[in-house]
Amino acid sequence: MFSYTTFSLAVAAPVLILLLQYFHGRKNKTISSRLPPGPLGLPVIGNLFDLGTINPHKIFNRPHQMLVELQQKYGPVFMLRLGAVNTLVIGSADVAMEFFKNHDQAFLNRVLPKIFRVVVDDHGHNMTPFNQHGAHWRMMRRLYATKLFSGTMLQNTIGPS
């Protein structure tokens, strides 16, 4: 027997799925439109196979040459997806200098990789390069600049010429 409830569910479910897919795609499109260009990756492994071919003796065959080819195709700044992680590749020394000179504030509080979380405490105080930018970071930087990297300490490390 025909049921209006079953019919309405059969019509409403695909419409709802299509609407959700449409709005989700619009959100992702605006995010991806702000990212640098790059090759499309596979769903789980991303662009790992774009780094080179697999051969029996080595896992990747000349990944540095593949990065040069990708740079020629997409420009000096491009995105790769390595597994589930979006990776920004900067292929030019001039562009890298501009990034870290003009946009250094954007790179200060980077996320600490999970592998380093075993070694550091909650605030990252055991590894200075991964400290969050703040009072502790400034104090450690000043300490390194005045004590560790002073002229006499460097001369003692190098030894007499």
* Estimated share of beta-strand residues: 5-15%
Mean pLDDT: 76
Q: What is the approximate shape? A: elongated
Q: Which parts are unreliable, with pLDDT below 50 for 5 consecutive residues or more?
A: none
What is the rounded Rg?
25 Å
Q: What percentage of residues falls in helices of 4 or more residues?
A: 40-55%
What's the helix-strand series? HHEEHHHHH
Structural class by helix and strand composition: mainly alpha
| Total of helices | 7
Q: Write out the strand line-up for the largest beta sheet, numbering strands in chain order.
A: 1-2
Terminus-to-terminus distance: 99 Å
How many strands, which pairing sense, and closed or not: the largest β-sheet? 2 strands, antiparallel
Number of strands: 2
GO molecular function, one term: oxidoreductase activity, acting on paired donors, with incorporation or reduction of molecular oxygen
InterPro entries: Cyt_P450, Cyt_P450_sf
Protein name: Cytochrome P450
Organism: Papaver nudicaule
